[in-house]
Amino acid sequence: MKRKLLGLLLSFCMAAALLPGTAFAAEEAADTWNGTADTSWYDPNDIKAGYEILTAEELAGLALLVNDGTDFASTVFTLKTDIDLSGQEWISIGNGNNAAGYFAGVFDGAYHVISNMKTGKINHGLFGIVSGGTVQNLGVEDADITFTDGDSSLRAGVLMDWAHNATIKNCYTTGKIVTNALGSKNIGGIAGQGMYGTKIIGCYSSAVIESKAFDSSEAVGGIVGSWETKGEQPMIADCYFDGEILFHGGPVDNQDPTANNGMTNSVGGILGMCFDNEPDLIIKNCMVAAETVEAPSDYNIEAGNGGMWIAWYQMTGMPENCYWPLDGREWPACIAFETYALSGGTDGLYFEECGTPTTDFKDPSILRGLQANAQPGVTWVAGMEHPTFAWDDNNIPASYQAVDEAIEKAEALDADLYVNYADVASAVEEVDRTKSKAEQALVNEMAQNILEAIDALEYKPASYDQVRTAIGKAEALNQEEYKDFSGVEAAVKAVVWDKNITEQAEVNAMAKAIEDAVAALEYKPADYSGVDAAIGKAEALNQEKYKDFSGVEAAVKAVVWDKNITEQAEVDAMAKAIEEAIEALEKKPVPPETPSGSGEPETGVPATGDASSTAVWMVFTLLGMVGFAAAGTMAFKRKKVK
User: Fold this and answer.
1) Would you list the domain boundaries of the chain?
2) What is the DSSP string of 550-567?
3) CA distance readout (Å), 131 to 68, 164, 189
4) How far apart are the C-alpha atoms of 456 and 444, rounded to whole Å?
5) Reduced to 3 states, what is the DSSP secondary structure of residue 616?
6) How far apart are CA 113 and CA 122, in angstroms?
């Protein structure tokens, strides 16, 4: 016997929080059926009040025991795992009738799913016959039911063929039922036929039901095919159908959908046909959100030209507070077919309104109406395309809160700052907002993809154009011209080359530091040695020997002593100006010599004792003093200028 550990790690902790305790666990690993039956869990000498079904083989074992005559009345079975029947031929649980070979216990699916059921024999549903029993909290997905030639069975439903005084709660079905066999059939998305006090509450079917028979008088319903032999308060409440009913009346080999062939077929989105009198079958608070419910021959109703959106009634009693599509076709919602017993021998068809047609099943008023009239224990909520049940993760929108938060985070970023923001944009674009709550893990993965793309973002590099320009200026300078070039060298060396665009201000500051260091440079002073040499040469001259010494004096006076090395040419020009002024000097003429024979040389100096000698010597003395004073003044000015 196989025993598998159940449970699955969710992709996010949030996903776990979003899965309520009363919802179908869509991410659970299913146990796959190997085609055998295991009854080892059951001991007829030690019958338990309840059993847990842990494997597909144990479920097949339950079918084997029931079909052998054990009805398990009042025994509770709890399904502990999803089961994949793997497309192998399934033998229904209960293959007899309401006297023997039926299931009478409680089968609680515990919001698990049984998938890939395939049947083509006399019994077709997961359960064949349930009499006095209960099936609840169970999903049957991707069923494949086929009536083949020679199939004499009268009933087929995905969940069960025949519900006799049974209770069905919180169940759903998907898949298909195709009939291509002779004989009248009762076919339903949940149950083929309901009888006595059977109650079907809070269920839905998305199955596709297709009839291709050419001589049948069939009753086909989205929830139940037919109902008869009513008991105490039978009920279909808070149910919906959003699958398809395709009803072709033509021959098998021709498939003419417009052919009638004299057949009398009844088709309804909820119930195909209710055959009996009082007590009335209650159909209440139901919804048909299907696009196609067709039946070309529906008792030859010209006005209808198709199936009933809700139900056929042979006698009295109308559904109430139901909803169906308003799509321009003249299909009635409900029809009561009265026989002679109620109308004095005259047959009649009565088209009745039994609720509200709508063009938009997302209209909040529909949800409010369903909630206001729901049976105890049924909770209607907003679904993806129409209202559904609180446990129906397949049709409730997934939570996109994490996705929206991730997108908000992405949109808050400046795309121009990053080299790979396209990856974030791509992750946002790939968000699929059509996912259901059952696919929450996929939605969480979308959010994670966006966050990972954000985490992987790389900033664009900062622009170093200003830095390179500043360095270019520095490199163009002749370091030998400056007193101290180390400040510029330090600023260039301090440049960090791996800054990104968000650090552009730091990079700009590096450029400014270089510019400031360049601006703070001080040139070395010019070389005045040539000027000093020229001035020294001028000072060595005896001005008295020259006619005009003012040119030399002016050249010396014109010297500017604060020139820097870049102005060396000007300084050299000053030295040259002094040199040229010296070269331009003209000496005074030399006095003539005394003629020979005079006895004494002509000195030009008055002789001693000459009457004018005193005055003459005084003149020479004054001239000498003036010359000495002038020489002293020139030397003083030069020193002062230096």
Assistant:
1) 24-309, 401-455, 465-519, 529-594+613-641
2) HHHHHHHHT--TT-BGGG
3) 15, 5, 19
4) 18
5) helix
6) 24
pLDDT at 372: 97
Q: Give the three-class secondary structure for 337.
A: strand
Cβ neighbors of 527 (< 8 A, separation 6 or more) are: 565, 568, 571
Find the distance separating the first CA and the last CA of the chain, reported in whole Å: 117
Cβ atoms < 10 Å from Cβ of 401: 12
Contact of 450 with 410, CB cutoff 8 Å: yes
The answer as to CATH 2.160.20.110 being correct for domain 24-309 is yes
Structure tokens at 110: 């515990």
Choice between 250 and 557, residue whose per-residue pLDDT is larger: 557
| Displacement of CA 413 from its chain's centroid (Å) | 15
Sign of CA dihedral 149, 151, 157, 160: negative
Q: What is the pTM of this model?
A: 0.72
Are 310 and 333 spatial neighbours (Cβ–Cβ below 8 Å)? yes
Q: Are 391 and 24 in contact (CB under 8 A)?
A: yes
Check for a shared fold between 24-309 and 465-519: no
Mark 115-145 as b/e (b = at least 16 C-beta within 10 Å).
Answer: bbbbbebebbbbbbbbbbbbbbbbbbbbbbb
Residue type, 582: I
**Strand, coil or helix: 638:** helix
- Confidence category of residue 5, pLDDT binned at 50, 70, 90: very low
Are 300 and 260 within 8 A, CB to CB? yes
> What single letter denotes the amino acid at residue 83?
I
Q: How far apart are CA 266 and CA 621, in angstroms?
A: 160
pLDDT higher than 60, residue 614: no
> Which DSSP helix (H) or strand (E) runs through 115?
strand 106-115
C-alpha distances in angstroms, 244 versus 12, 42, 188?
A: 36, 40, 11
CATH class of 465-519: mainly alpha
What is the three-class DSSP state of 444?
A: helix
Prior bond of 279 cis (ω within 30°): yes
- The arithmetic mean of pLDDT across residues 321-336, rounded, is 73
The owner of tokens 């397949």 is 394
pLDDT in tens, 465-518: 999 999 999 999 999 999 999 999 999 999 999 999 999 999 999 999 999 999
Q: In this prediction, what percent of the chain has a pLDDT beyond 70?
A: 76
The pair of structure tokens assigned to 117 is 């059921």
Is the pLDDT at 233 greater than 60? The verdict is: yes
pLDDT per residue as tens digits for the range 275-316: 766 567 889 999 999 988 876 554 434 333 456 677 766 555
* 346-363 per-position pLDDT tens digit: 444 555 568 888 999 999
Tokens read off for 369 = 């109406």
Location of structure tokens 């199939």: 151
- Strands (DSSP E) contained in 202-261 are 204-205, 208-211, 219-221, 224-230, 235-237, 240-241, 244-247
Q: What is the mean pLDDT of residues 209-228?
A: 81
Interior/surface letters 49-60, b for 16+ CB within 10 angstroms, e for the rest:
eebebbbbbbbb
Classified as helix, coil or strand, 610 is coil
**Is pLDDT of 8 > 60?**
no
Q: Three-state secondary structure along 128-175?
A: EEEECCEEEEEEEEEEEEEECCCCCCCEEECCEEEEECCEEEEEEEEE
